[in-house]
Every structure is written in structure tokens, then in C-alpha cells.
Write a structure and sequence with these properties.
The protein is globular and about 45 Å long. The chain has a single domain, classed as Lysozyme (Orthogonal Bundle). The strands form 2 sheets. A 3-stranded antiparallel sheet has the order 1-2-3. The relative contact order is 0.18. About 3% of the residues have low confidence. It starts with a helix and ends in a 15-residue tail after the last helix. It is built from 5 helices and 5 strands; from the N terminus they run H-H-H-E-E-E-E-E-H-H. By secondary structure, the chain is mainly alpha-helical. A hairpin with a 4-residue loop joins strand 2 and strand 3. It binds 2-acetamido-2-deoxy-beta-D-glucopyranose and calcium ion. 2-acetamido-2-deoxy-beta-D-glucopyranose (NAG) binds next to loops.
Length: 148
């Protein structure tokens, strides 16, 4: 019994340290400050919606592996196949960043990376969850009551 209790407590502590869940308006306000709505030809609400469906606003989320062998990092689930480097050597992929910089609790550099992704020819279609859940929908609820 004692061991099970200890294990449960340890699990709880690990869960807490492994997830940093941002609040919806917190995400919207950071994005607004970084002028993300000027990228991808979409609104700020589209970006908030995208981040929700990619990661539930968990900046430490790691997804995949994908069929292309990449993994997806952080609040925007950025793919290491094209955009960030998992290796120790100089980061040379699209965003010129290490993937580990995409799973910390500072999302401002992640935003700079998605600006580059959204400027690419596929634009927002790089994110399947945006196409499925956000594209062309009424997204007013994503920025409702936020200071943006
Ligand atoms: C979007 O939904 C909100 C309520 O959720 C509504 O007030 C608004 O008029 C809708 N906008 C459009 C363009 O339908
Ligand atoms: Ca970051």
C-alpha cells in the first residue's frame, strides 16, 4: 500500500512537471503582441484555435513519430522533419532552431518559427488540425473576453 501511494504521488509530480498548459487568453495575448495575425492570411482566432487543437495549449507537448519520421514539438506541434533540429550540431532546418527550444515555457520563439512556416507555400495547410477544426469556421469564441 505504501509503495502504491508513493508511486501515485511520484506520477502526480511527474505529470505536473511535464505539462505547462497555457490559458486561452494568455496564448491570444502573447500571439497578439508578436503580431502573429499578420501571417498565414488568417485571423488571430485561427492561430489560437490551431494551438488548441495541436497541443491543448501544452507548451511541452511532443507528438509523433510521423510517417516522415519527424516528431512534433510544442504548442504548435512543429515537425522536426522540416523545421527544427533534434541533433546537437548547428540547427540548420527551416526555423534554425533546436526542437528542445520548442518544448519550453517561452512560446515567443515558437511563434517566430510558425511565422516562417506560415510564409511557406503550404501556409496554414501545414497543420491538418487547423484545416479540420478551424478553417472557415466561426472562431469568435477563441478570442472572446481576451485583451486582444
Ligand atoms: C459567430 O458566433 C457568435 C456566437 O458564438 C455570434 O455572435 C456571431 O454573430 C457569429 N459570427 C458569424 C459571422 O456568424
Ligand atoms: Ca520556446
Amino acid at each position: 500500500m505504501k509503495n502504491r501511494y508513493t508511486a501515485a504521488l511520484l506520477f502526480l509530480l511527474l505529470s505536473v512537471t511535464e505539462a505547462k498548459r497555457f490559458r486561452r487568453c494568455e496564448v491570444a495575448e502573447i500571439m497578439k503582441k508578436a503580431q502573429l495575425e499578420k501571417y498565414g492570411g488568417v485571423s488571430l482566432a485561427d492561430w489560437v484555435c490551431l494551438a488548441y487543437y495541436e497541443s491543448k495549449f501544452n507548451s511541452r507537448a511532443v507528438g509523433g513519430p510521423n510517417p516522415d519520421k519527424g516528431r512534433n514539438y510544442g504548442i504548435f506541434q512543429i515537425n522536426s522533419r522540416w523545421w527544427c533540429s533534434r541533433r546537437r550540431s548547428k540547427p540548420d532546418f527551416g526555423c534554425k532552431m533546436y526542437c528542445r527550444a520548442l518544448v519550453d515555457d517561452d512560446i515567443t520563439d515558437d511563434i517566430e518559427c510558425v511565422k516562417i512556416i506560415a510564409s511557406n507555400s503550404n501556409r496554414m495547410n501545414a497543420w491538418a488540425s487547423w484545416k479540420r477544426h478551424c478553417k472557415g469556421k466561426n472562431l469568435s469564441r477563441w478570442t472572446r473576453n481576451c485583451k486582444v
